[in-house]
Amino acid sequence: MGKLTDQEQAAVERARGAQDEMLRHTERWAVINSGSRNLSGLAEVGAELADAFSDLPGEIEMVDPAPVTAIDDGGKEYDIPHGHHLHMRVRPDAPLQLLFTGHMDTVFPVDHPFQKLHWIEENAVLGGPGVADMKGGLAVMLAALRSIEADPAAASIGYEVIINSDEEVGSLSSAPLIARCAEGKRAALTYEPSALPDGTLAGARSGSGNFSFTVHGKSAHAGRNPRDGRNALVAAADLALRLKAGMDDTLSVNPAKIDGGSPNNVVPDLAILRVNMRPVSTDDQARAEALVAREVAAVAAEHDVTIDRHGGFARPPKPMTPDMEKLFTLVQGAGRDLGQEIGWKATGGVCDGNNIAAKKVPVVDTMGVRGGAIHSPEEFLIVESLAERAALSALTILRIANS
After folding, report:
1. Residue 286 and residue 330 in one domain
2. Beta bridge partner(s), residue 70
3. Residues forming beta bridges with residue 59, ordered by sequence position
4. Are 278 and 205 in contact (CB under 8 A)?
5. Is residue 77 part of a domain?
6. 20: how many CB neighbours lie within 10 A of its CB?
7. Is 73 within the bounds of a domain?
8. Where a domain ends, among 265, 291, 315?
9. Total domain count for the chain?
């Protein structure tokens, strides 16, 4: 372990000392089903979080979700209801401004069989929905901030906290809030679980865009006058193949589903193509946008159909910029001084760190617990990592303040 100042040692010990409380918080929050579409469960866990975070010296508000729409199987646009998002602002006039983010939702809906906590290894490894992703991470965030609030340096540190209710479904209703709160921040920490159970951080991330292409053709009798029809299903399939052909090493294109069609004796006049794209860089995202525009126009002309596009790149790519690398190196050094060997790796996964980085704010977005098997009924939390990662966050915050 490296040498810590007396100030740093005190902050680290306060954070570590909250181990039992962090575990209690994690257990309390994880037993409440907060699947992204379970609005009552999100409201319940949101109230619990607001109560816990009220220990910090800032005003908490539950922010209305921004409007979000989608395209149904019949090609019609409809509204998707979302839960409220927790927002807190502390010392907005302080010279240093930071952003801390997390999410209260999980991937497990209210009718999913994975609802209960269980010990995989007694007092060491806890299994349960969201224990790693990310109820444990929220407990770590709170413990670290409480430790900082007990430090004399707190007066010079201002920050905002966002805990959104829709991260697992793309953060579409919280994206405006994230963008607004990221403005002007020196740095941001997000409490997704570590990329690997050994504590490895996620570094650069690809972006992600979800699209629905609604193809309108013309129906006709499949036997009597098929040439009078304009087959929307064939046009959608052609578009899927053309977009897939644009895939390369730095742009993933995944045509995932075609809805629509008709009975066998009718030329189908409607089809909806669903596609996900993942660009590694902003240049790759621009190429993807050009690919979409070009191939939509070509297919519409060749098949004599109309095509409406819905969706876009909700998660921009997160490259490893010099400012980002500087922050990662600071976190790595803090970890080393705590006896934690921490590396980072690029990943194709996405999170709110993508949206924060798009505002030119350096962010480390895997400051949460060590665990694994997230998004599955085998999800687990390594309990000792609560104290480890809270100490890491507290030390990181102090070193950002003193840098």
Report:
1. no
2. 78
3. 89
4. no
5. no
6. 10
7. no
8. 315
9. 2
Residues 6+ apart with CB under 8 A from 322: none
Pairing outcome for strands 85-90 and 371-372: unpaired
Structure tokens at 48: 């619990």
Neighbour-count burial of 103, counting CB atoms closer than 10 A to its CB (0-12 exposed, 13-18 middle, 19+ buried): buried
Record the tokens describing residue 299, joined without a space: 């297919």
- Do residues 165 and 279 share a domain? no
Q: What is the amino acid identity at position 117?
A: L
At CA 276, angle to CA 73 and CA 204, rounded to 5? 150
Distances from the Cα of 249 to the Cαs of 10, 206, 254, 280, 295, in angstroms?
A: 47, 12, 13, 9, 20
Domain hosting 49: range is: 6-68+82-206+318-401
Pairing between β-strand 371-372 and β-strand 306-315 as defined by DSSP bridges: unpaired
State how far the Cα of 246 lies from the Cα of 392, in Å rounded to an integer. 42
Q: Can you give the pLDDT at residue 196?
A: 87
Strand partners of residue 214: 272, 308
Express each pLDDT in 360-387 by its tens digit: 999 999 999 999 999 999 999 999 999 9
How many Å apart are CA 162 and CA 87, to the nearest integer?
A: 5
pLDDT in tens, 86-132: 999 999 999 999 999 999 999 999 999 999 999 999 999 999 999 99
What are the φ and ψ backbone dihedral angles of 45, each rounded to 5 degrees? -70, -30
d(CA 371, CA 149): 27
Within-domain flag for 37: yes
Alpha-carbon distance of 369 to 135, in angstroms, equals 9
Residue 290's beta-bridge partner residues? Answer: none
Q: How far apart are CA 272 and CA 314, in angstroms?
A: 20
How far apart CA 7 and CA 339 sit, in angstroms, is: 18
Q: CA 212, CA 310: separation in Å to the nearest integer?
A: 5
Classify residue 155 as exposed, middle or buried by CB count within 10 Å of its CB (0-12, 13-18, 19+): exposed
pLDDT at 252 over 90: yes
- pTM of structure: 0.96
Contacts of 390 (CB under 8 A, 6+ apart): 15, 16, 18, 19, 22, 140, 143, 144, 147
Same domain flag for 248 and 261? yes
Q: What's the token pair of residue 25?
A: 């918080």
